[in-house]
Specification:
By secondary structure, the chain is of the alpha+beta class. Helix content is 15%, strand content 27%. A 5-stranded mixed barrel has the order 1-2-3-5-4. One of its GO terms (molecular function) is mRNA binding.
């Protein structure tokens, strides 16, 4: 039973399946344990199968046991690396401190750039939801890693995109941590891809439920905001209409009136 598993204990296990976000490990318990991709090594790992493959025998350390949910998490990282990661993701405050986005190697960054360009050039649907995993949280949103292969034929590679705090749920969100945490599996859709800037905008809200963007107001004098939007100003030909209306009105012409106020002598 899971209740007999001891956190911190090392066990020999067998890799049963691999996914984009980690591997499920047979540790001899009633349920398989999850070896998350972030816990495969002290170094950053882009591809799970670069480290483990189905059938491999590995030594892992138990990091958490949830008997209510029937979930077990294990790690192949050193204790020092686990302690550092835990310290980075903990902290007080509304939004909370967090670990920064994983830094990628030069070769991996090149692969990321290629994957972003391929996604930008593809005909992906901005209404399609795919599964992703929260890899880091910030005060203004969360970075979610997803597999581009889920978005279309010919696409491959995992990418990180930002779900802005306003795109976490339809209702107003006070704090990112109220909705998601690192390691959560979420459903996201790709809204925009900036291949040049290497940025991807994601949303956890369906396109039909997404709030309409506020109408941008431009300043006639440049730089600031116009006092009224076009809809508030009414018809664009209001000036011409006013002039025509005035032309149809009776015209009055002012003339001088001379009044002699001199006193006449008797």
């Amino acid at each position: 039973p899971l209740s007999e598993l001891e956190v911190g204990a090392e066990v020999e296990a067998t890799v049963k399946t691999t996914t984009s976000y980690g591997a499920f490990i047979d540790i001899g318990a009633e349920t398989d344990a999850l070896l998350h991709v972030s816990r495969l090594s002290d170094d950053f790992v882009a591809n799970v199968e670069d480290v483990v493959k189905v059938g491999d025998t590995v030594t892992v350390r138990i990091v958490s046991v949830d008997t209510d949910k029937g979930q077990v998490a294990v790690t192949m990282r050193s204790e020092a690396a686990e302690a550092e990661a835990k310290a980075a993701t903990s902290g007080g405050g509304g939004g909370g401190r967090r670990r920064e986005r994983p830094q990628r190697s030069g070769a991996d960054r090149a692969a990321q750039a290629a994957a972003i360009n391929a996604l930008a050039e593809s005909s992906f649907s901005d209404e399609t939801f795919v599964e992703g995993e929260v890899v880091s949280t910030l005060d203004f949103g969360a970075f979610v890693r997803f597999d581009t292969a889920s978005l279309g034929e010919g696409l491959e590679g995992e990418l990180d995109g930002l779900v802005h705090i306003s795109a976490l749920q339809a209702q107003r969100t006070g704090s990112v941590s109220d909705v998601v945490s690192v390691g959560d599996k979420v459903q996201v859709r790709v809204k925009q891809v900036d291949a040049k800037g290497g940025k991807i905008s994601l949303s956890m809200i369906s396109k039909e439920d997404e709030p309409a963007p506020r109408e941008r107001r431009q300043n006639n004098r440049g730089g600031g905001r116009q006092m009224f939007s076009d809809s508030e100003m009414g018809a664009k030909d209001w000036k011409e209409s006013l002039e025509k209306s005035l032309e149809d009105q009776p015209k009055f012409v002012n003339s001088f009136v001379i009044e002699d106020k001199r006193k006449v002598k008797a």
